[in-house]
Design a protein that fits this description.
The complex is a heterodimer of chains A (321) and B (343). Chain A is built from 13 helices and no strands. Chain A is an all-alpha fold and 321 residues long. Chain B is of the alpha/beta class and 343 residues long. Chain B has a domain at 251-342. Chain B contains 12 helices and 11 strands. In chain B, the strands form 2 sheets. Chain B has a 7-stranded mixed β-sheet with strand order 6-7-8-3-9-10-11, with helices on both faces. Chain B has a 4-stranded antiparallel β-sheet with strand order 2-1-4-5, covered by helices on one side. In chain B, helix 7 (162-174) runs parallel beside helix 8 (192-209). The model of chain B is unreliable at 1-5 (pLDDT under 50). Classes of the chains: A mainly alpha (321), B alpha/beta (343). Chains A and B meet through helix 9 and helix 10 of A and helix 2 of B.
Chain lengths: 321, 343
């Protein structure tokens, strides 16, 4: 096991390296304009531009810049570990931005996961058990709506109804949990729901499909032949086998959201990682873009590793090697 | 002999299971009757799709009762299991009547340890502490011949060999001391050497516990070795029924003849093996008259008109239009004749 994890961690490093290389290549190959010109002031002189260029390190060859970035990422820079560089736009360390934004995104993801798991698996089980009933049709209709409803539209509708019209919930923005857990919660209910909806829909469909397949297995017949109650047959024997692939998918979905809840964050003005990634890209702020991408990439590879370990833990037939 | 050993355990009469499908009604079981006594092993033989498994599953209510049309009676312990509620059936399953299946690997849950699955079987019917249940499980695993039962308790099904998996399934079926064991092709998925061991185990258990065993198989050799009575099924109906000794000595139905000629049995003089021509019929569009007549070597005019009923004789019956004296004569001729002559 330990051997396996070490080997996988080496691979994590290799993947991260490949990610940096690709992002760097895209950034420098695309004709997006010179960041130094953009950030040197309204009517910059040649000297200004040269000065900014030197300040950003853009006067050095690309491979030197790249090498420096990689080194800083793995061993840290003057602002600490991991070294993510200095924002062109705001002239602050990217690491600080990430540290401010990460709890917001993580709060958003954590709550959404709870909602979508409970709703998705719950609806999926009901649907499978009451297959072809009106309940099943209703649930699968909900699933279709969930995957089709655009997040920005749904978010705005919720804001309009619950904030503007009814005034039941606070509007956009984010309150740290350390400041006020209640406000943190109230501010996040809508973003959680919106973000969770699409996933709940997918998970409901998946749970239903997996469970229906599992219920046709011989070992389900054995469980019934033992004299177990149908409830136990479904919820223990059926669901246990159906959930294994769902749990492993969950890891990856959560990881993707680390850098990817951009729309939800924008609609509800939660200035999380997705938000800084977006502003970074818009401002051609390479270090910021790079920083968020690296955090997102780390999340994906590490959650991938955890998912594999979880899989081996959940399914005794799987051997990690 | 103690009274229990001849007590009637199960009485199935006119059991029919019709399964509506998009293409029509599948008459999986179409009116079968039999009884099972304590200490008896009843063999049910027939080709795939003859209704053997479905009839057994129906006894335990393991056929979806909402979608199947089930009629007849299955009397166990004075009451009709077909009328029983789900919770009444649950008390019977795995407790009074147990069942084991063809593929033990598929039948064991892959994600729970074998021991836990057996403990669960105990606790489904009895309120005992896990520790106590565990001791009973280890003891029984040992009895059914699993080496190092205590260590094997925590192993998962995939860590067992095929034979051990079936032993574990048998242990699971026996853990609550049932009165009837239904074994649905328990050896089909196993190696030949292991098959013999499993059959011996079932025999031993039957003798020791004086339970009734229904053994579903397509292997006539197995039937001859371990059963006292046998049902031959074809297309959802019983075509021959009698004591195993009588059926093997003087089979009365052309289908049974075909089955006997298709396997090597030492005392039958046919040296070459013959297959029964054709394939089992569609259970949706059964042939008119005798369902076997399109494949029957002895079919004559009239076989496609009326459906033959089982003889009203006491110990050995067949459902065939041939006159009883003709049947005996034809079988005597057939068994002496070399295989080629029948072509």
């Amino acid at each position: 096991m330990a051997h396996y994890i070490v080997r996988r961690l080496v691979w994590v490093a290799v993947v991260l390296l490949a990610v940096t290389l690709i992002v760097y290549a895209i950034f420098f190959l695309l004709p997006a304009g010179d960041p130094a010109v953009r950030h040197a002031g309204k009517i910059p002189s040649e000297e200004n531009i040269a000065e900014v260029r030197a300040q950003f390190g853009l006067d050095q060859p690309v491979y030197v810049q790249y090498g420096k970035f990689v080194k800083n990422f793995f061993v840290g820079d003057e602002y600490g570990w991991p070294g993510l560089g200095f924002s062109y736009e705001t002239r602050t360390p990217v690491r600080d931005k990430v540290i401010t934004a990460a709890p917001r995104t993580l709060s958003l993801i954590a709550g959404a996961v709870v909602i979508w798991l409970i709703a998705g698996v719950g609806i999926g089980v009901l649907s499978a058990v009451k297959r072809h009933s009106w309940l099943d049709r209703l649930a699968m209709g909900f699933a279709l709506f969930g995957v089709s409803a655009p997040v920005f539209w749904l978010g705005l509708i919720l804001l309009y109804v619950f904030w503007e019209k009814l005034g039941w919930l606070p509007g956009t923005g984010y309150v740290p949990i350390s400041e006020s857990p209640v406000d943190w919660f109230l501010h996040l209910i809508m973003p959680w729901s919106v973000l969770a909806l699409a996933f709940a829909a997918v998970y409901a469909r998946m749970t239903r499909g997996n469970l229906l397949e599992t219920m046709g297995e011989d070992y389900i017949r054995t469980a019934r032949a033992k004299g177990l109650s149908e409830r136990r047959v479904v919820l223990k024997h059926g669901l246990r086998a159906s959930l294994t692939p769902i749990i492993t998918l969950l890891g990856i979905d959560m990881a993707i959201l680390v850098g990817g809840a951009v729309i939800t964050e924008s609609v509800f003005n939660i200035q999380g990682l997705g938000h800084i990634a977006l502003t970074g890209v818009n401002a051609q702020d390479l270090p910021v873009t790079m920083g968020v991408i690296m955090i997102g990439a780390c999340a994906v590879v590490i959650m991938g590793l955890l998912a594999d370990i979880a899989y081996a833990y959940l399914d005794p037939r799987v051997k990690l090697a | 002999m103690p009274e229990t050993s001849t007590a009637r355990l199960l009485e199935v009469s006119d059991l029919a299971v019709h399964l509506p499908t998009r293409d029509g009604v599948v008459k999986a079981v179409d009116g079968i009757s039999y009884t099972l006594n304590a200490g008896e092993t009843l063999g049910i033989v027939g080709e795939s799709g003859s209704g053997k498994s479905v009839s057994c599953l129906t006894v335990l209510g393991l056929i979806n009762r909402d979608s199947a049309q089930i009629s007849g009676r299955v009397i166990y312990d004075g009451s009709d299991l077909l009328e029983a509620t789900e919770s009444e059936l649950r008390m019977v399953r795995g407790n009074e009547i147990s069942m084991i299946f063809q593929d033990p690997f598929a039948g064991l849950h892959p994600l729970f340890s074998v021991g836990d699955q057996l403990v669960e079987a105990i606790r489904a019917h009895e309120d005992v502490k896990k520790r106590v249940a565990r001791e009973r499980v280890v003891e029984l695993l040992h009895e059914v011949g699993i080496p190092q039962a205590a260590e094997r308790f925590s192993s998962y099904p995939h860590e067992y060999s095929g034979g051990m998996q079936q032993r574990a399934m048998i242990a699971m079926a026996l853990i609550n001391n049932p009165r009837i064991l239904i074994a649905d092709e328990p050896t089909t998925a196993l190696d030949v050497t292991v098959q013999a061991q499993i059959l011996e185990l079932i025999e031993k258990i039957k003798e020791e516990l004086s339970i009734g065993v229904i053994l579903v198989t397509h292997d006539l050799g197995v039937v001859r070795d371990v059963t006292q009575n046998v049902l031959v099924m074809y297309a959802g109906r019983i075509v021959e029924h009698g004591s195993t000794a009588a059926v093997f000595a003087e089979p009365k139905h052309p289908y049974t003849w075909g089955l006997m000629e298709s396997i090597p049995l030492l005392e039958v003089e046919t040296r070459d093996l013959r297959a029964i021509d054709g394939a089992p019929p569609s259970l949706i569009h059964l042939p008119t008259g005798c369902a076997f007549h399109p494949r029957c070597t002895q079919a004559f005019e009239g076989c496609d008109k009326a459906r033959p009923e089982l003889d009203q004789t006491e110990h050995h019956q067949a459902a065939c239009h041939l006159a009883r004296t003709d049947r005996d004569r034809i079988w005597q001729e057939r068994r002496r004749r070399p295989a080629d002559a029948s072509r």
